[in-house]
């Protein structure tokens, strides 16, 4: 089983963030990267370890607070994004921090399919902010 380690999980996002000075956005992106990496690790390993459970609880709490600041700004960026081949009807960020326990990602294809919509929306927001 490959152990999850925290880092920027998306090199494109990392390159976009070079031009962003907003510390709150940096914190949100770091938290989101951690969540995304954790979700992928749990899904691939088909289990949530005790460390995964603890990490998810911490990241989820942080992201709930940070998302409150970014949710309305992210809204237009996830509109029209695809989740499982269908246009997103619900906020993908909320959907991915909704599970109470990390074990809810085990075998959850729907949440895995939600990750790209959130990442695309996040990158779109970063591009917009970097151009400002």
What does this 3D model show about the protein?
The structure is a single chain. By secondary structure, the protein is mainly α. The chain has one domain. Helix content is 67%, strand content 3%. It has 5 helices and 2 strands, in the order αααββαα. The protein has a two-stranded antiparallel ribbon with strand order 1-2. A hairpin with a 2-residue loop joins strand 1 and strand 2 (86-87). Helix 1 runs parallel beside helix 5 and helix 2 crosses helix 3. The longest helix is centred in the middle third of the chain and has 29 residues, at 50-78. The radius of gyration is 14 Å and the shape is globular. The N and C termini lie far apart (43 Å). The model is unreliable at 2-6 (pLDDT under 50).
What secondary-structure arrangement, pairings included, does this model have?
Layout: H1 11-17, H2 23-45, H3 50-78, E1 82-83, E2 86-87, H4 92-97, H5 109-131
Antiparallel strand pairs: 1-2
The geometry reads as: globular
* Strand portion: under 5%
Main structural class: mainly alpha
Helix coverage percent:
55-70%
Strands in their spatial order, largest beta sheet: 1-2
- Structural domains: how many: 1
Q: Which regions contain 5 or more consecutive residues with pLDDT less than 50?
A: 2-6
First-residue to last-residue Cα separation: 43 Å
SSE topology string: HHHEEHH
Strand tally is 2
Largest sheet: 2 strands, antiparallel
Radius of gyration: 14 Å
Integer average pLDDT: 91
Count of discrete alpha- or pi-helical segments spanning 4 or more residues: 5
């Amino acid at each position: 089983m490959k152990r999850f380690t925290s880092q920027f999980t998306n090199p494109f996002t990392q390159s976009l963030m070079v031009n962003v000075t907003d510390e709150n956005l940096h914190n949100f992106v770091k938290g989101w990267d951690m969540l995304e990496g954790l979700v992928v690790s749990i899904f691939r390993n088909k289990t949530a370890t005790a460390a995964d459970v603890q990490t998810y609880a911490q990241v989820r709490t942080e992201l709930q607070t940070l998302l409150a600041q970014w949710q309305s700004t992210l809204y237009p960026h996830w509109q029209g994004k695809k989740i499982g081949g269908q246009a997103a009807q619900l906020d993908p960020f909320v959907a991915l921090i909704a599970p109470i326990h990390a074990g809810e990602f085990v075998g959850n294809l729907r949440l895995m399919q939600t990750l790209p919509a959130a990442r695309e929306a996040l990158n779109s927001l970063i591009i917009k902010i970097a151009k400002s």
